[in-house]
Design brief:
There is one protein chain. The chain is an alpha+beta fold. It has 4 domains: 1-31, no CATH class; 50-63 and 236-310, no CATH class; 72-219, Sandwich (Immunoglobulin-like), CATH 2.60.40; 314-482, Sandwich (Jelly Rolls). The protein is 27% helix and 21% strand. The protein is built from 10 helices and 18 strands. It has helices at residues 2-13, 21-26, 34-69, 152-155, 199-211, 245-256, 264-270, 288-310, 333-342, 463-471; strands spanning 88-90, 108-116, 122-126, 134-140, 160-165, 178-181, 186-194, 213-216, 314-315, 321-322, 352-357, 371-376, 384-396, 411-413, 426-431, 443-445, 452-461, 480-482. The longest helix is centred in the N-terminal third of the chain and has 36 residues, at 34-69. It is globular and about 70 Å long.
Length: 485
């Protein structure tokens, strides 16, 4: 009876458990009822469709950002937004009036570029920046970081010329120009420059931004020229309606930016859903059970993303959460989707660490009317490299907005004039009213009567800090409720 059950189960999932030919000849034929088949097909389709939903989610964020830029003729002032293949300088620090569909920091100014590399490579001329943290981050259309070539860690902030090259280009680059592979036809750059909250320092940073330039390879003449890269024509798109519209658009996005080779394992399962990269999605070619499973996944997808918005990675005992630290984060499609939704272009942990929480030390949701304290023992303060720093930033609990407050303080951290305790420990006060006295400098205002979240960023962390935080040997202190006076 046991052998019969094992062989029956094996035949259902297509495994071979036949050590000899005679056993194979005498094994009983498996008979599965149509009802079981239907349930199995729908469950399999649902499972795979949820994975496809998460896998492709960054492409939908990419499309959203592309559409914000596609018909622009000049750079915008509301964010790091410019026409495709143009530099978009946000030369002011994000504040409560910043309307960006992701969580901007309040520590750096941004320069952003949406790249279309189908025609030819595009060369970024980046000036030397030695007096502050500055990093050039490049990503593909799946929001996956590519190789870093500019930061204090990588090249000491020396001037550099970087050629961003798409997957199908072959050729040689000019002498002195470094090659940066982007493994999809579209890509993006996020350039961050640390800035202090005063006009003099902002003017210095704007000067650095003015020295940046983009030049198409064909116009490079031993250096940048006045010829800018071509702005691609708007894409002609079919508009999809009906219950399968999400998967139909998914097929289009997968065709425009074919999945890089590292995702071969995931791509090998898409055919079961009628998805073949490069081909249109036609639900009429699928059986009714598979269609039902896909529709259920499309319906549940937003709820999955809402959960991941608050629980994107690994939860630590002190309440902080982060995407797991590993080279294979690219293959954690749930975390990758959540980062695309909430963070959008988060750096690798070697460059910057991001922890966040919606909860206090008792696992209760953060309440803007309550008072909290973060207490750091001297040995718990994050280790940072030269030019590195850390900060805690306040965000609205239901949106990406920074929280308005009477002193325009949206973050607090190591670059502020913090007041340390006599023993070298540090207390940060997160509450609606100032703590009073000398510790007002340690106050991060919260929105009274509203939920919120906070993000802890460490820029240019020391390697041992990075490793110990992710291993749990070093813990960020929790937000501890403090009794009201």
């Amino acid at each position: 009876m046991m052998k019969h059950a094992l062989l029956t189960a094996a035949s259902i999932i297509g495994l071979s458990l036949t050590p000899t030919a005679s056993l194979a000849q005498t094994a009983p034929q498996t008979v599965v009822t149509s009802e079981v088949d239907a349930e199995g097909r729908e469950a399999l389709a649902y499972s795979l469709a949820i994975q496809a939903y998460l896998y492709s989610y960054p492409l939908f964020i990419w499309e959203r950002e592309r559409l914000r830029r596609e018909n622009l003729t000049e750079a915008q002032t509301r964010g790091p937004i410019a026409p495709i293949n143009r530099l978009g300088h946000m030369n002011w620090l994000a504040n409560a009036n910043s309307d960006m569909p992701y969580s901007p920091n309040n520590d750096t100014v941004y320069t952003g570029v949406s790249l279309d590399l189908r025609a030819e490579p595009i060369i970024l001329d980046m000036p030397a920046i030695k007096d502050r943290y500055a990093v050039v981050q490049s990503v593909n259309a799946y929001m996956e970081n590519q190789t870093y070539h500019y930061s204090p860690r990588i090249n000491g902030g020396d001037a550099v010329q970087l050629a961003f090259v798409g997957p199908n280009w072959e050729g040689d680059l000019p002498e002195g120009v470094e090659r940066v592979e982007i493994d999809t036809p579209s890509g993006a750059l996020a350039i961050r420059l640390a800035v202090r909250r005063n006009e003099a320092d902002l003017a210095t940073v704007r000067g650095y931004q003015a020295q940046m330039s983009l030049t198409p390879l064909s116009a490079w003449d031993n250096g940048p020229t006045d010829i800018e890269p071509a702005i691609p024509a708007p894409l002609e798109r079919e508009s999809f309606e009906g219950p399968f519209a999400h998967f139909q658009q998914m097929a289009v996005l997968l065709a425009e930016n074919p999945p890089p080779p590292q995702h071969a394992a995931m791509n090998a399962t898409l055919w079961r859903l009628g998805l073949e990269p490069g081909q249109a999605f036609d639900p009429e070619t699928l059986d009714p059970d598979t269609r039902a499973g896909i529709l259920r996944a499309i319906e549940d997808g937003p709820a999955v993303m809402e959960y991941l918005r608050r629980n994107r990675g690994q939860r630590y005992p002190t309440g902080w959460d982060t995407a797991r630290y590993a080279d294979d984060i690219v293959f954690d499609y749930a975390a990758r989707a959540a980062i695309s939704l909430v963070g959008l272009l988060g750096n690798d942990p070697e460059e910057a660490i991001y922890f966040y929480t919606y909860f206090d030390s008792e696992n209760a949701p953060l309440d803007g009317s309550e008072r909290y304290r973060m207490h750091f023992e001297p040995e718990d303060l994050p280790g940072i490299n030269e030019l590195g720093f850390w900060s805690v930033t306040m965000y609205d609990g239901e949106s990406f907005l920074l929280v308005d407050n009477p002193i325009d303080r949206y973050s607090i951290g190591s670059r502020h004039n913090l007041q340390y305790n006599d023993d070298g420990s540090l207390d940060l006060y997160i509450q609606p009213e100032a703590p009073g006295g000398e510790f007002d400098s340690n106050w991060l205002p919260s929105p009274e009567g509203r939920p919120y979240r906070v993000t802890f960023r460490i820029y240019s962390p020391k390697p041992e800090t990075t490793q110990s935080l992710y291993d749990g040997e070093l813990a960020l202190p929790p937000l501890e409720p403090v009794d009201r006076p």
